[in-house]
Amino acid sequence: MKKIKEDIKNNKFESVYLLYGEEAYMRQLYKNKIKNAVIPEGDTMNILERDSDAIDLKEIVEFATTMPFFADHHLVILKDSGLFTAGREAEEKEGEEGKAQAESLPEMKPGAEKNTGAKGKGKAAKGAPTKADPIIDYINNPTETTVLVFVETKVDKRSKLFKAINEKGYVCEMARRTVAELVKFIGQTFKQGGRAVTEADATFLVDYVGMDMQNLVNEMEKLIAYTDGKDVVTKEDILKVCVEENDEKVYNLTGAIARKKKEEAFAVYDDMLKNRESPMMILYAIQKQYRNLLIALEARKNNMDKYALSGLLGIKPYPAELLLKDAR
């Protein structure tokens, strides 16, 4: 990411960029940074953006190889192109064909050598054709005035296209941020909005909302609006404003049931029904919650923290923390 910032600062761009990884917010952020730096605002003549099924490689190569119209650059942005699995698909296809051909041959006597007439078919030949070949050919001989940007959720690093971009351009992985990085990000974002937040409350926001940066940004925008006239965002503000996930509602319901608080349990149940949760789904969620409590009990015995447990159960850290507290 530092490389992209330097390219923008120096107004000197690679011919091709690959932005990939789990963190959608970062992919979108850096795509827009490149877009705003390469193409003037309002210029629709020198930019081509395509998503998944709308990608026509012939159209893209033709656009990329033409000169920009009264501008310094052409910009091509391809999102979730589906081109980064092509190498693997070709390899698997050839492997299957080779296996089928071998199985169709008559049984040979021990020691006899099979002559398949297709040496090496069980393994993809180096440089096996893929659907990404037209764009790979372009990347190997790019137009100096065109900037090509791939924005991908997942890529196969063994694919020919990935290897070509890694050699000829710049590859940047947008991985999930750590809790420490998110806490720093939250503090910076609140500061820009004229608010302060303690490290403990910023950590609680991550636990409560989750580690998806776009969700965090959405919730911080609501918190800044809610705390108009205040200098500090607190845990109490977070609990009042941020979206309460069903995980916590189920926790509150099972907790009320365990404490034999009938009125409290029915209040939570009614609230879930108002949110259009079906009774059968609520029953299933309660059953799942008790199963999670048993897993949390074992987790405590093995000294697992809330982040390890949240990863194991596929839930947010805050509900995981509540499970660990109750699993005694």
Please render the helix and strand layout as text.
Layout lengths: L1 H9 L5 E5 L3 H15 L8 E5 L5 H8 L9 E6 L6 H18 L29 H8 L5 E7 L7 H9 L1 E4 L5 H14 L6 H11 L3 H14 L8 H7 L4 H13 L3 H13 L4 H23 L4 H8 L3 H10 L2
Parallel strand pairs: 1-4, 1-5, 2-3, 3-4
Helix pairs in contact: 5-6, 7-8, 7-9, 11-12, 11-13, 13-15, 14-15
How would you describe the oligomerization state of the chains in this entry?
Answer: single chain
- pLDDT averaged over residues: 84
- The percent range for helix content is 40-55%
Poorly predicted sequence stretches spanning 5 or more consecutive residues: 86-91, 108-125
The general outline is: elongated
Largest sheet at a glance? 5 strands, parallel
Question: Span from first to last CA?
Answer: 45 Å
Summarize, please.
With 328 residues, the chain is α/β, with parallel strands linked by helices.
Provide tags for this entry.
328 residues; alpha/beta; 5-stranded parallel beta sheet; 15 helices; 8% strand
Question: How does this structure look, described?
Answer:
With 328 residues, this protein is α/β, with parallel strands linked by helices. It is built from 15 helices and 5 strands. The protein has helices spanning 2-10, 24-38, 57-64, 86-103, 133-140, 160-168, 179-192, 199-209, 213-226, 235-241, 246-258, 262-274, 279-301, 306-313, 317-326, and strands spanning 16-20, 47-51, 74-79, 146-152, 170-173. It has a 5-stranded parallel sheet, with helices on both faces. The two termini are 45 Å apart.
